Amino acid sequence: MRKAILLSKRTSASVVHAPGPYTIRIQGQTHHRIGSLIPRQGCLPEYLQLYIFDTVNELKNRLNAMGQSSAEGNLDEPTLALLIEMIDENNCLAKIFRRARDHYESVGSEFTIRLVQDKGKGKEYDLPTTSEVAGLIVGDITSTIGERDIVVQFQSDTLQQIRDDHPLYMSLQYPLLFPYGEYGFHPEIPLHLETGTSRTRQFVTIRQYYASLIQTRPNQGMTLIKGGRLLHQFIVDVYTAIEEDRLRWARNNQEILRAELYSNRFILPPSFTGGPRYLVEKYHDAMAICREFGNPDLFITMTANPNWSEIKEHLQKYGGDSPNDRPDIE
Prior knowledge:
The chain is mostly helical and 330 residues long. It has eleven helices and eight strands. It has helices at 12-16, 58-65, 77-90, 92-106, 130-133, 169-173, 206-213, 229-252, 254-263, 276-293, 309-317, and strands at 2-3, 6-10, 23-27, 32-34, 112-115, 134-137, 150-152, 160-162. The protein has a three-stranded antiparallel beta sheet with strand order 1-4-8, with no helix packed on it. Strands 6-5-7 form a three-stranded antiparallel beta sheet. A two-stranded antiparallel sheet has the order 2-3. The longest helix has 24 residues, at 229-252. The protein is globular, with a radius of gyration of 24 Å. The model is unreliable at 2-13 (pLDDT under 50).
């Protein structure tokens, strides 16, 4: 899958003009887009086309796609071959692409791949199977396409944008972080609330989902949080997806919000961060502290220090990662 964004993967020195941890800077709006299954005549395969077209020379094609024209470079061919083997064996998306390769080599007729948005209620936490997430279709498919389904064309010059609320959004972009091609966030994941709670929300928000996803769980695989620099990019990607979701909600509910604004008096509670009552409450809290303990002498600001004992102990307990590779705990 392609990421059509203004994305600068630069060292810290070129972004903040000082030495520091690996930094990713994005500018503008992010778009995840997917191309066709087969490259145009005379073009080299790239992205998902590498799974289908000219797989006899797959290692060479992947090196070319990464800008490495020979075996003498930063990429190690034996390691790359092992990664291909691992993905082929475990990733349900790779399996459907390999099935498409077999169809292309044996039959040669045009076909499309449909990546479905819903594998069934109650299966949110099950590993997906190939038949649940995708289908290889020959012929007309217009009657079977869902609203958020991804349909990958046989051959096309255009890129198709993928919605960030499609459950395969992240698995397509980060196959090494999600090696099974598992389903991710979608808008209808049930939210299980405690008995007697006053909340009425029925589904998990995108922020809640990803906040839970990056937690450290020793009894489960920690592929995601050990992703190093790829984890940095993933977290930036997640942040932009959350912001896009908020903007989409505001656009979809603009008329309702405007009607409520003019027809009803709407008071923001103190729990609304940045609201007038929130600011007044914080001011009164600060004045109460001064009244009890006296006026402050120093105004101290603080940033995280990777040498803090708590950070070091956490990293040693879960594999001794570099603090720069764990932006989620700093």
